[in-house]
Structures are given as C-alpha cells and as structure tokens.
Amino acid sequence: MTDPLSTHLRRTLVLGLPLVGSQVGQVLIGLTDTLMLGRYSIEALAASTISHSAFFTLFVLGSGFAVACMPLAASALGQDDETQVRRVARMGLWFSVLTGLAMMPLFVWSEPLLLLLGQTDVVAEGGQAYLRIAGWGMVPALLLATLRSHLSALERTRIVFWATMAAAGLNVVVNWLLIFGNLGFPELGLRGAAIASVGVQVLSAGILALYAARGPQMARFELFRNLHRPDWPIFADIFRLGLPVGLTHVSESGLFAASAVMMGWIGTVPLGAHGIAIGVAALTFMVHMGLSQAATVRVGRAWGQGDAPGLRRAALAAALLSGGAVAASLVLYLGFGEEIVRLFLDRDDPEAPQILALGVTLLAFAALFQLVDAGQVMALGFLRGVQDTRVPMIYAIISYWLVGIPVSYGLGFIARLGPEGIWLGLVAGLLAATVALMARFLRITAPMAVTSRS
Predict the structure, then answer these.
(1) If both were cysteines, with which of 142, 248, 300, 453 could 393 make a disulfide (CB 3.0 to 4.6 Å apart)?
(2) 440 and 383 in contact (C-beta within 8 Å)?
(3) CA quadruple 355, 361, 365, 366: dihedral positive or negative?
(4) Which of 5-14, 149-158, 298-307 has the lowest mean pLDDT?
(5) What are the phi and psi torsion angles at 406 (to 5°)?
(6) Residue 451 — very low, low, confident or very high, per pLDDT cuts 50/70/90?
(7) C-alpha distances in Å from residue 78, one per residue of 34, 221, 262, 301, 304
(8) How is 215-231 classified by DSSP, letter by letter?
(9) Cα–Cα distance for residue pair 217/175, rounded to 1 Å
(10) pLDDT grade, residue 75 (50/70/90)?
(11) What is the mean pLDDT of residues 425-439?
C-alpha cells in the first residue's frame, strides 16, 4: 500500500531540513561578506559581488564531481560493500584537489579577465585582490563538498548542518576583525573578507574529515586508507556522472554571473544593489535546493521500486513544501524589502540612498523569479531521482544561455530598461528551464503511471 501524502511530507522534511540548514549556512558565509563589505565601502561591495560570482561559478563546476559521489556511495552501501564506499570517497577527494588546483591560474590573473568582461579598473583591481586570496579556498571548498556527499549518502546530515552553521558564525567574527581592523587587528577590507573565507573553508573541511574518519560508527569505512592509490574505473564513473551535473550547475550560476557582469557595465551603484538583492535571494533559494536534494532521494527510491503512486506523491510533497517556501519569501521581499536592504548599507555613504531604492526594486523582482527558480531546481531534483542528467544539462544550457542571457541584454540595454530589464531576463531563462525540465519529468514517468494503472 502506498504511503499517504502526509507521510511523504513528513519524510521529506526529516530528510530535507538538515540539508536545507547546511545550504543556508553556506550561503550565509557569502551573505555576511556582502553585508559587512557593504558597510565598509561601496567599492568593496561592488568588487566582492563580481568576485563571489566568479568564485561560485567555478565552484559549482567542480562540485558536480562531489555530487556524483552520493549515488555511487549509496549504491555501494546498499550492497554492503564498504570498501567500494571508501574508494568512491577517495576518488572524489582526488577530483577535489585536482580540480581546485587547475582553477588557481584563473584566480591569480583575474584582473585582466574582469577587465575583458567590461568591469571598471577599480572593480577589477579589487576583484583580483580578493580572488588571489580566496582562490586558495577552492580546494578545501571542494573537499568539503565531497565529504558532504559522502556523509549524506550515509545519512549523516546533522553533522554537515552543525559544521556549516559553526563556519558561518566564525566567518562573521573573523570578518569583523579583519575587514574593519577591530581589537588591534589590521584593517584589510576586501582582503580580510577573503582570508576569513579561506579559513572557514579549511576549518569546515577539517571538521567533516575528522567526523568521517572517527565519528560514531564511521571508523569501519577507513575513509583515508590508501588515499594515495588510484582507482581508475571509479574515477571514470565519477567523471561520467559528475560532468553533466557540474555543467548544469555552472550554466545556471553562469547566468547569474553574466547578470553581475552586465550590472557592472551600468555602474557601481547597480552592481552593489544587485549584489545585495541576489545575495538575499540566494539565501532563500537554498531552502529549495535542500528540498530538491531530498526529493532526489525520495523520488529515486520510488523509481527503483517501480512505485508510480509513491513517485508522484514524493514529487508532489517536495513541490508543496517548496511552494510554501516561495509564498513565505514573497511576503518577506514585498513586505520588508526596504528593511532588508538597509541592513547591508552604511547610512553615511553618499551612494546609499541610490542603492537602497534600486535594491528594494530588485527584491520585488526577486519575488517573481524565486517562483521559477524554485520550479527549475525541483525539476532537476526529480530528474536526478530517475537517473536522468545528460538531457537536463542540455535543457539548462539552452534555457540559461540562449534565452536568459540574450533576454537580459536585450531588455537591459537595447530596450533600455536597465537593471530591471536584466532581472526580467533572469526570470525568462529560469521560466524556460522550469517548463522544459518539468515536461521531461512528466514524459519520463508517464509510461510508469500507465503501467501501474493497467
């Protein structure tokens, strides 16, 4: 007998809440950088906005390999093959180190790249100053992502949540010390925020590594045994599964990075307002990201059992919870937009009133695109549950790069709608992805539903 919808709602919440919490904690690290640098100077805020976009775009590309470790480890654990679990994690850690090191030249020589993207001299110089330090955090950030996937596959998500929240709290403290030079520490501005981010990534990865090696009932996996030894078949499996996931993620983050670049063409004030609004939207989006990951597990289990009613109810439960989060964010953005933006600004800054006005407007647009953004990430979670990643990657690239970016440019510059036009382009790209991905999910699962009724 298929479980009722209420049971699916409860199970999705139990599985998803720690994942939501860890996602929110991760975004809080970037959001606190934005908040505190906004109070330091508008130039630092603008440079951090473009720098965070660049770093995050590269991170999500590399993290696709970490995500691929989750289903491989879970499958091995289902077969009671603990040796295979260790091998998957080991090759995932290899990918983290190799990918992070390969990205370092982009951080070291980021100023010429930012200038080529049309950023001002001040923003490009500040962006490179930040990225040359923050880039050293890419390897530990990817190691952290792999360890998160490993522990999630073992259903150990609470430690991920607590480690992430502790890191977010530490980031606030170190930012306060190093950005502003409090308690006798040097006033480093952007560089201080970068140092804090690297330290937090190293600490978080260390906590999860220690737990994965020595935590309750974890020692039997011998995670770091033979860490130097390659396992090329598993390496190939991670590459095969992880590359489409990474490219899907980077196509979406690339859309938002492109929007930041276009804001930089307009000026420092629009870029600063964009950084505040997109940071707040990213925080609430993590709720949908965590629910999407939970949906992958719940839908995947029903798919493997051939349970069509259970699959539909698992997807519906996740969608309903995501819809409730969208409704809450609508109230937040439309009812308290001015209060939210003020948190990020120094009232004595002469440009603060302009950023406040534009930031409130962009948050109103964020209420609209939050709906379609939630739709596309939930659809991706459903499709990964039915083991479909390659075609969704193609749909995502088309939607974000051939719809979203051209529409943003056309409305922002050709139609002269400015920042508002750029954000309408974001909505268009996300809407295209939502429609295409949801249609594919329904098309894939339709034969299963027909079979269950016959």
Answers:
(1) 248
(2) yes
(3) positive
(4) 298-307
(5) -60, -40
(6) low
(7) 42, 14, 47, 12, 12
(8) STTTGGG-TTTTTT---
(9) 36
(10) low
(11) 93
b (16+ CB within 10 A) / e for 181-218: eeeeeeebbbbbbbbbbbbbbbbbbebbbebbeeeeeb
Q: Of 119, 125, 122, nearest to 264 (Cα)?
A: 119
Q: How confident is the model at residue 78 (pLDDT cuts 50, 70, 90)?
A: low
Give whole-number Cα distances, 150 to 219, 350, 446, in Å: 14, 48, 32
Angstrom distances, CA of residue 270 to CA of 50, 353, 422: 12, 12, 11
3-state secondary structure of 453: helix
Residue of 421 and 155 predicted with greater confidence: 421
Count other Cβ atoms within 10 Å, centred on residue 331: 10
Q: Is 416 helix (H, G, I), strand (E, B) or coil?
A: coil
Q: Determine the pLDDT at residue 424.
A: 92
**Rounded-to-integer distance, Cα 433 and Cα 373, Å:** 9
Neighbours of 327 (CB within 10 A): 12
The crossing angle, in degrees rounded to 10, of helices 418-453 and 308-342 is 160
Residue ranges of domains in the chain: 5-453
Could you tell me if 274 and 362 are in contact, meaning their C-beta atoms sit under 8 angstroms apart? Answer: yes
What is the DSSP code string of 18-78? Answer: HHHHHHHHHHHHHHHHHHHHHHH-HHHHHHHHHHHHHHHHHHHHHHHHHHHHHHHHHHHHH
Instruction: Give the chain's mean pLDDT.
Output: 84
Please work out, in degrees rounded to the nearest 5, the angle formed at the alpha carbon of residue 232 by the alpha carbons of 231 and 236: 125
* pLDDT winner (highest mean) among 224-228, 288-292, 450-454: 288-292
> Do residues 133 and 55 make contact, with C-beta atoms less than 8 angstroms apart?
no
pLDDT single digits (tens) 386-423:
778 789 999 999 999 999 999 999 999 999 998 889 99
**Residue 163 host element (H or E):** helix 158-178
pLDDT bucket at 2, cuts 50 / 70 / 90: low
CB 426 within 8 A of CB 280: no
Counting every residue written for the chain, the total comes to 454
Helix spans in 121-157 (H): 121-134, 138-153
DSSP 454: -
